[in-house]
Fold this sequence. Notes:
With about 400 residues, the protein is α/β, with parallel strands linked by helices. It has three domains: about 5-80, Orthogonal Bundle (Arc Repressor Mutant, subunit A); about 85-200 and about 380-400, Nucleotidyltransferase, domain 5, CATH 3.30.420.40; about 210-375, 2-Layer Sandwich (Nucleotidyltransferase, domain 5), CATH 3.30.420. It contains 13 helices and 15 strands. The strands form four sheets. A five-stranded mixed beta sheet has the order 6-5-4-7-10, with helices on both faces. A hairpin with a 2-residue loop joins strand 12 (about 225-230) and strand 13. The longest helix has 23 residues, at about 5-30. Bound molecules: zinc ion. Zinc ion (ZN) binds near residues 248, 258, 260, 265 and 267.
Amino acid sequence: MPRPPRSLVSGDVRRHNLTVVLGHVVRSGPSARSEIAEATGLTRGAVTALVAALSEAGVLRETAPVTTGRGRPITRLELAASDLAILVAQVDADSATALLTTLAGDELHRVSRRHGRPMGDPEAVIDVLAAVVADATSAAVRLGRRVVEMPIVVFAPVGGEPPVVLTDTDLGWGEVDVIGGLRSRLGVLPGPVVLEADGWLAAVAERTILASTESMLYIKSNSGIGGAVIANGRIAEGAHGVGGALGHVAIVPDGELCDCGQRGCLVTVAGPDVLLEKAGLADLVAERGLAAAVDELSAQISAGAAPAADAWAEALPWIARSLQVLSLATDPEAIVIGGFWAAHTASIEQAFRSNRPTLAEARDGLPAIPAVVAGRLGADAALLGAVWGSRDRLLADPSRLGL
Ligand SMILES: [Zn+2]
């Protein structure tokens, strides 16, 4: 086989090494050249040259010298990229949100608008999404930042090429081309656009900050119920892109008809709409929006106030049974609970363990029953997952940063 030209080889190596240096600074924070060399295994000379290239491109900058215990003050390098930004657009059952961040994930601008949940009317929702994206795009211009990528987060499974929303039961959508809808309203969109499902993004984000695990089951509830299965460190996307649509695990025999067409889905007995109705808080949704109503529901459950607490108690066995089935199907190290359910992890764990007594034997130092852990990122989990995902894609391809 002919060898590739030398310049190509060294170009690839250089690109890889730029990514390694940049990745270290992004993940570990401001670092001295010596610290980067030690952590990455690159020579001091190589690090100096790579840092010079990254500084010249405006991606890294030096901090003021810091005095350490002894020796001379050291200068660290931090992420600058002061003219770049990531713009995340998100549409959930309540609102459309646009968030502008630095490459390091620091928030620059955020705008959120309620769309009033017009069921079965994607055009009306995309109008609102387009308005917040336009607002954040203007903010980027005002701040002198170029948007290098625009991930769009939807609370629904995504599939196809180009990607579309497959079905969103929270909004009464069938297949909807969100990217196309934004293009037709806004013309050219800022940066390359990706469309991603919230459950997967939130799962990856939680996995990043929780003790990293190769196999994890993630379930969350904000608007509907969603989740993800992480196996061998990767999201199990499935053949049709709906892997991890845990709200539609058909758990109740001959149960109520779900918008997805099945009977007895978990969301029909434990979804927020059902709980809010039973808790007598349905009017609050119309008044203040779903997110505010769910916050109130969660507070009443925590306080043990009837009827919210009773509604939660009725939902728990179904949540537990779904997790029991799913945990034997996927054998995760941990089950991570997200959305407003995170605050109620203890009751979910108790219900989950009530039917797992015989699998308690530990083997190879690992408990056979997965740990049930509360997610830590709250309602922003998917947004943060989208930002971090964009950042990692950019680091993997420094040419997009002008390098
Ligand atoms: Zn369903």
